[in-house]
Amino acid sequence: xxxxxxxxxxxxxxxxxxxxxxxxxxxxxxxxxxxxxxxxxxxxxxxxxxxxxxxxxxxxxxxxxxxxxxxxxxxxxxxxxxxxxxxxxxxxxxxxxxxxxxxxxxxxxxxxxxxxxxxxxxxxxxxxxxxxxxxxxxxxxxxxxxxxxxxxxxxxxxxxxxxxxxxxxxxxxxxxxxxxxxxxxxxxxxxxxxxxxxxxxxxxxxxxxxxxxxxxxxxxxxxxxxxxxxxxxxxxxxxxxxxxxxxxxxxxxxxxxxxxxxxxxxxxxxxxxxxxxxxxxxxxxxxxxxxxxxxxxxxxxxxxxxxxxxxxxxxxxxxxxxxxxxxxxxxxxxxxxxxxxxxxxxxxxxxxxxxxxxxxxxxxxxxxxxxxxxxxxxxxxxxxxxxxxxxxxxxxxxxxxxxxxxxxxxxxxxxxxxxxxxxxxxxxxxxxxxxxxxxxxxxxxxxxxxxxxxxxxxxxxxxxxxxxxxxxxxxxxxxxxxxxxxxxxxxxxxxxxxxxxxxxxxxxxxxxxxxxxxxxxxxx
Length: 524
What we know:
5-stranded mixed beta sheet
């Protein structure tokens, strides 16, 4: 018995020590708004404490002094009008007392007048994109914790899984307005110290604001389950003085200008490999693994793969535009020209691939500017950073003349040979099913039955068996006031055509309609 008592006492002491080093209350934060929320919370908390003491006090008093063993007998009455009116009026008064400060704080939360800085925040799987609307600065913010730390192969840093490569920088004592949305699934931008937590939903802009009182580094994370790497989507906000913020803005604009020269110059293999390894470990390693071995079948290996050791143009096309029907997303709008060129070069020469081929940033820029794949890869950089000239390809780039093995056509393009109507429908259904299972199945379910009323069924629905134009419009532009987001910027013309075809012919819909990319392109 004494042993048990000793053990319980030790556990109680340990728990008390642990409690002394922890906080169970709300974060007071570093903004006026966050402190208002904290004070409101404490006001309501103490009201609840008083109510609890009164209610439990009366209850325990009644149990103790009016128990049967003391001879107490229950009163026999049907109703008591005064008592019923009293216990109705008192809670109403309490709720009104709590509602007055709560309403004041809520109104303050939604006051977006006269902001000094406006920042658009877009959630991606699994990173954040920040855009300073007044200054034209924009960048992606990725988790920067080394992958080996996640695998317990290196000692963990002080801010394990809560550090990024490009933090959000803001000034103190300035009203900052956040416009929060998503490029794909639902996310949530949450920084406790700022008392800001807003859902990031595709096709919808949510707003929030803050005024930070003191400089510092404030951390948060995505607060909405958004996929396999949800835990690797941190937020870091650096608040600095107005002068420091202006210097940072000027530095970012200067780097943007100097970046043009960096893009135009010729990069060496060593420079591209060093930069590419950094980009790969930050962006690609979670799926394709540090050793390039992947996680088949969802994330194929790059070590010795046909993409990484095959024609350069196919490799560039896959990274630049993604690959239809797979988990490989397009990185053309997520990485800079330098990052794209470096990571492709790295993948072609790491892990024993050793192709010896390089992709220059200026070639990616040419592709982004609208040149064909062969024209872009034939663009030669300038050692002095001058405007690049187009010339014959070097031995490290593919020939300018197309061949059967070096084509710039999209990976998921339709076969060149004409198909019969039945074969065209069958091919579109196969591709469309892949797009549906990747993009739509979470909401509308595999059998098209949906989850009404939020996610309506597609099986036999007026949209899926009605006019084709209305169906295409719904998929491309979404529907306001519902959970249906616009996919025009998330899917290619081919993908939209295929998934609409699939929805119109699966689950017994059998409309026989085959939607073509040209119809989608015309709708754009």
